[in-house]
Amino acid sequence: MLHYNFDRIFKARGIEKPFVFLINAGISRQFASKIYNNKVKRLNFDVMERLCVLLNCTPNDFTEWIPEKNTSVPADHALRMLEKSDKAIDFTQKLNAIPLGKMEDISNLIDAYLKKTNE
User: Fold this and answer.
1) What is the pLDDT of residues 34-57, one digit of tens each?
2) In what helix (H) or strand (E) does residue 102 lie, and over which residues does it extend?
3) 3-state SS assignment for residue 2
4) Number of C-alpha atoms within 13 angstroms, CB side, residue 31?
5) Taking the model in full, what pTM does it have?
C-alpha cells in the first residue's frame, strides 16, 4: 500500500521538531499535525510541491510503498523504488559522532559530491 512517511525526511534533514518547523514555514497547525503524525491521506500537487521545496526533496522521498501480504510484484518492479528501509537516516547523529579533526575530510567529500551532481 502506498502512503506518506515524513519521518525519514525530517530525520535526514536534522529537523528535531518537525511540528514547529512546519508551523514556522507557514503550514497550518492542523495540517502540520497531520504531517507530523503521518496521518496525511492525500496531497494536492501545489501542497506537495511546497513541501518538496521546503524540505529540498522529491515526492518519492516521503512516499513509501509497503506491499500488502497478498501482493506479489517482481523484484525489478518500479514500485520497489518506493520501498524504504526501516533504518531512518539520521545524519546529524552520525556527523556528531565524527571527531572534529575529521570534519574537514567529510566537508570536502560533500563539496566534491555536490560539485559532481551540479555539473
Assistant:
1) 999 989 999 999 999 999 999 999
2) none
3) strand
4) 14
5) 0.70
